[in-house]
Structure formats: C-alpha cells, structure tokens
Amino acid sequence: QDWKNLSIVLNKHENSPAHLESFQKWHWQNVLERLIALIRVLGTQNIALRGTSDKLFEPNNGNFLKFVELMGMFDSVIKEHIRRITSHEIHNHYLGKNIQNEIIQLLATHIKETVLSALKKAKYYSVSLDCTPDISNIEQMTLIVRFVSVTGPFGNAAGSVNIREHFLEFLELKNSSGAGMTELLLQKLGELGLDVARRSG
C-alpha cells in the first residue's frame, strides 16, 4: 500500500532474482511454443527446414530461419529473442539444427503414438511394405498400415467410418528375401505392440 513509492518498489521487484528468473522461464517457454508451431507447419506442408547456412539474416539459411526472421518483424517474443541472439547476449537459442531435429523427433513420436492408438482399436488392419536403397546403398523398407476407423455409434448417422493409411517408419533391411522381410516385419509389429494373431468375434 506504499503508493507514493510505487515506482521504486516496482523497479526493485523487476530487478529481483525471483522476477528475473520467472521472466526467463516465461520467455523460453514462449519461444519454444512458437518454434514447435513453426516446425509443425513446415512439416505439414512438406517444406524443407534447412539451407546451406545455419545463421540468421544470411542468404540461403533455409525456410526455418527465414520464417523466424519474418516472425521477428511482427511478434514481440521472437523479436526480443532475435535481439538477444544478434547482440550475443545469449548463445543457446533453440534455433540450431540439433534442436530442430529433437523437436521433429518428439512430434514424430507423438504422431506415431496417436496412429498406433487408433490402429489398436481397429478390428482388422493390413500392412504394406516397399523397399528401396538409400543414398548409402542400404536397403530401406517402408512400413505402412491401413485400417478402418469407426467413430461414434456404429450405424448411427452421427458416427463415421474412415479408411486410414499411415506411414509408420523406415526399417533397415539386411536380408531382402521374403523370409527376411517377414522376420523383420513380425519383429517390428511385436515392438509396436500390434496383434498379429487372428481375432474372433
């Protein structure tokens, strides 16, 4: 209630360790939320993230950093983050390729878990496999699942039936024979917790 000294009290609070620590946490959380959202959009649109440079405001630094630069023109959180980076106030900034890869992996894991959850509710599912060598000449097998998803009361107009098809992952194939592919497939389905036994009822 010391209103006459309010400016002094506020200044003291703003420079207190507790306030500065809380502000730092708030800043990093807001930065991370925006970067995750940006990577989700780029991934959804099948747009490459990186270029030949990994620094802000350089030519050919990729779509991710170019969009960060664009966001900094209109978003106060990213603008402040860029200011801290360019003034060398901070060196760890969440814009590097390692953080990008980690966010991509976390998003991929979440998507995969969502797909597997829906697949396990389906009565039947099928698997499609395709093989192709990668750039290092290692045979890669794609694992794709297809199943029927039923939502809402069956037979009710409010419910819906959808055929869904999802890519799950690439599998390194060391034995490209039919037996080798089958063995790898059964192993992977077991790891994913997918039932390969015939169901009844």
Quote the beta fraction.
15-25%
- The total tally of domains equals 2
Mean of residue pLDDT values: 86
Number of strands: 3
Return the string of H and E elements.
HHHHHEEEH
**C-alpha termini separation:** 72 Å
Explained architecture:
This protein is of the alpha+beta class and 201 residues long. The protein folds into 2 domains: 3-103, no CATH class; 122-191, no CATH class. It has 6 helices and 3 strands. The chain has helices at residues 6-14, 17-44, 62-74, 76-86, 97-121, 178-191; strands spanning 125-133, 139-151, 160-172. Strands 1-2-3 form a 3-stranded antiparallel beta sheet. A hairpin with a 5-residue loop joins strand 1 (125-133) and strand 2 (139-151). Helix 3 crosses helix 4 (76-86). The longest helix is centred in the first third of the chain and has 28 residues, at 17-44. The chain is elongated, with a radius of gyration of 25 Å. It starts with 5 loop residues before the first helix and ends in a 10-residue tail after the last helix. The model has no long low-confidence stretch (mean pLDDT 86).
Secondary structure: elements and pairs:
Layout: H1 6-14, H2 17-44, H3 62-74, H4 76-86, H5 97-121, E1 125-133, E2 139-151, E3 160-172, H6 178-191
Antiparallel strand pairs: 1-2, 2-3
Task: Explain briefly what this protein structure is.
This protein has helices spanning 6-14, 17-44, 62-74, 76-86, 97-121, 178-191; strands at residues 125-133, 139-151, 160-172. The model has no long low-confidence stretch (mean pLDDT 86). β2 and β3 form a beta hairpin.
